[in-house]
Specification:
There is one protein chain. By secondary structure, this protein is an alpha+beta fold. It has 2 domains: 105 residues, Mitochondrial Import Receptor Subunit Tom20, Chain A; 135 residues, Methylamine Dehydrogenase, Chain H. Strands 1-2-3-4 form a 4-stranded antiparallel sheet, with no helix packed on it. It has a 4-stranded antiparallel sheet with strand order 7-8-9-10, with no helix packed on it. Strands 11-12-13-14 form a 4-stranded antiparallel sheet, with no helix packed on it. This is F-box-like/WD repeat-containing protein TBL1XR1. InterPro entries: Ebi-like, LisH, WD40/YVTN_repeat-like_dom_sf, WD40_PAC1, WD40_repeat_CS, WD40_repeat_dom_sf, WD40_rpt. It comes from Lates japonicus (Japanese lates). It is found in: Nucleus.
């Protein structure tokens, strides 16, 4: 078994993205040089870090619950561990000893004289009265303070027949944007594609989609970049879609899915881009600590602002 720091960093970076910690992911991606990694993000499944941690936790639980000869410790599995418990030093010996102490106390209590048991029942009955009284008083106190409780919205369940699942991406989806004019939805994913979904009522299929493959030029051929599509935005007329990718390029697409222009001047991944209201300029921001204003018609970089931190 081998583990590299690049692999660990990539899984942590993906976890931050999937959990919505976009700023933390941005900073961590810069400091750990994720953009220079050779890992194909399209092949890494969602929740990969959580999955491998759960498997490790199950292994520790097996260590605690199973003897070296393969039999269950004291004939039964020990209670589940929390993640923090699992990383404590000598967790196997500590939990097994705690279990032995607990069983010894239970056996001692079971072998106590019957008279002592009777006395404890009487005491418990008295305590039970106090407990009941306490619960009653607690109920009154809760009722008196009911007006001070904060109202919390309950869960809202959406019927299955009211939801539409758009299937097609082969990795997690990072961002979506509605077309301001048409019933089109654009999505960007870790499978190095953006997709345009036609959700109009007269569409021939409920999941009609155009696949916008983000490729780079290598050896005179276009090959998949294998980098995340992290940002996208429609122009105000809804005719053009701009996308930003972890390969460092911004791209402009028509709403029919055709590549209109490739904008390449950033020296690292692009994490944000935005059209202006007139639809003639695009502003992009990258991990190279610069923002660039692009002419949307010519694809030329009109102005670049460095030294953003």
């Amino acid at each position: 078994m081998s583990i590299s720091s690049d692999e660990v960093n990539f899984l942590v970076y993906r976890y931050l993205q999937e959990s919505g910690f976009s700023h933390s992911a941005f900073t961590f991606g810069i400091e750990s040089h994720i953009s220079q990694s050779n890992i194909n993000g399209a092949l890494v499944p969602p929740a990969a870090l959580i999955s491998i941690i759960q498997k490790g936790l199950q292994y520790v639980e097996a260590e605690v619950s199973i003897n070296e000869d393969g039999t269950l410790f004291d004939g039964r599995p020990i209670e589940s561990l929390s993640l923090i418990d699992a990383v404590m030093p000598d967790v196997v010996q500590t939990r097994q000893q705690a279990y032995r102490d607990k069983m010894a106390q239970q056996q001692a209590a079971a072998s106590a004289p019957a008279s002592a048991t009777g006395g404890s029942i009487t005491g418990n009955a008295k305590n039970g009265e106090n407990t009941a009284n306490g619960e009653e008083n607690g109920a009154h106190a809760l009722a008196n303070n009911h007006a001070d409780l904060m109202e919390v919205d309950g869960d809202v369940e959406i019927p299955q027949n009211k939801a539409m699942v758009l299937r097609g991406h082969e990795s997690e989806v990072f961002i979506c944007a509605w077309n301001p004019v048409s019933d089109l939805l654009a999505s960007g994913s870790g499978d190095s594609t953006a997709r345009i979904w036609n959700l109009s009522e007269n569409s021939t299929s409920s999941s009609t989609q155009l696949v916008l493959r983000h490729c780079i030029r290598e050896g005179g051929q276009d090959v998949p970049s294998n980098k995340d599509v992290t940002s996208l935005d429609w122009n105000s007329e809804g005719t053009l879609l701009a996308t930003g990718s972890y390969d460092g390029f911004a791209r402009i697409w028509t709403k029919d899915g055709n590549l209109a222009s490739t904008l390449g001047q950033h020296k690292g991944p692009i994490f944000a881009l935005k059209w202006n209201k007139k639809g003639n300029f695009i502003l992009s921001a990258g991990v190279d600590k610069t923002t660039i204003i692009w002419d949307a018609h010519t694809g030329e970089a009109k102005q670049q602002f460095p030294f953003h931190s």
